[in-house]
Design a protein that fits this description.
alpha+beta; three-stranded antiparallel β-sheet; five-stranded antiparallel β-sheet; Phosphatidylethanolamine-binding Protein; about 190 residues; about 25% helix; globular; 2 domains
Length: about 190
């Protein structure tokens, strides 16, 4: 009996090792697919800010405790197919679900920077933020540290979406037209 028990345990170990190897290979394949998707969708695009770096704190100046203006953003090279840019800024840490801080589209691809306290020029559309206003809403978390995601999309066309449209409506209109993307994340906690 002991021989059979030993053999059963050995078979279980071999099966577990085989499953682990298969799972790791499948995960590697999924990672390669994600890398290819990023490369296809303009992985070289960059979005940075002179006000804060990736993962660092957004200065209070840009919050509800400061001037409440938008931080300056620097836009790296878009793909050749790009006809316009779109920007979504949101906070997934909000207590009522993701809070939308800014929705902007039909930004000209010739723009290499969005200045602080930006007033979009004619032709650029601004959508409804989480408060229902067509404007930037500064970080103002009720408690704790929140993460603010600045997501830039290069599109192969301008969108005929009306000003005041929601983040969801913009995301629907962008489907099938995203040719590049970049993201910058900053944090904020009230002091």
């Amino acid at each position: 009996m002991k021989k059979w028990a030993f053999l059963a345990i050995a078979l279980v170990i071999v099966a577990a090792a085989g499953i682990t190897v298969w799972w790791m290979m499948a995960g590697s394949h999924r990672t390669d697919e994600a890398k290819n998707l990023r490369a296809k969708n303009g992985a070289h695009m960059k979005l940075t800010s002179p006000a804060f770096t990736e993962g660092s704190a957004i200065p209070a100046r840009y919050s509800c405790q400061g001037e409440g203006i938008n931080p300056a953003l620097e836009i790296g090279e878009a793909t050749d197919e790009s006809q316009s840019l779109a920007l979504i800024v949101d906070d997934p840490d909000a207590p009522v679900g993701t809070y939308v801080h800014w929705v902007v589209w039909n930004i000209p691809v010739s723009m290499t920077a969005i200045p602080e306290n930006w007033t979009p020029e004619s032709g650029v559309r601004v959508g409804a933020n989480g408060s229902g206003k067509n404007a930037w809403t500064p970080p103002c978390p009720p408690s704790g540290t929140h993460h603010y995601h600045f997501k830039l999309y290069a599109l192969d066309q301008k969108l005929g979406l009306a000003a005041g449209s929601s983040k969801g409506e913009l995301e629907s209109a962008m489907q099938g037209h995203v040719v590049g993307q970049a993201e910058l994340m900053g944090t904020y906690a009230k002091h």
